[in-house]
Amino acid sequence: MLTVIKFIVSVLTAVIGVYIFVKPDAYARLAEFSANKGRGKTEIRTIMGGTFVGLGIAPFILINSPFALTFLGIVYMFIALSRLISIFLDKSFGLTNIMILLVEVAFGLIMIIPS
Q: Where are the domains of the chain?
């Protein structure tokens, strides 16, 4: 059952990446930064979208490797840690930021727990 949940998290990660790639303006609004020029949109599509798509589909490419699932969990935990530190440094305690942090921690823990 846990393995199925891990693959669902992988799919959600890839879907988030595709969404960011296709809708960089919407992601920029959510993240509260500007993507009003071509260069900014390219950065959002490649760095955020491409990274999440790659992380999300890697477990399907490496289907017999539990390391791919664990690696995705480690990445989510580092994203969460970076967000937590940034929330305090930037004093950005908004509800959206906290909710995204909780999702990142949950996804990270799900992926790290042995199946």
A: 2-112
Please check whether residue 11 is in contact with residue 5, taking contact to mean a CB–CB distance below 8 angstroms. Answer: no
**What pTM does this model have?**
0.81
pLDDT, residue 33, reads 78
The 3-state secondary structure of 5-68 reads HHHHHHHHHHHHHHHHHHCHHHHHHHHCCCCCCHHHHHHHHHHHHHHHHHHHHHHHHCCCCHHH
Query: Count of CB atoms within 10 A of residue 112's CB?
Result: 16
> With a cut of 70, which residues of the chain have pLDDT below it?
none
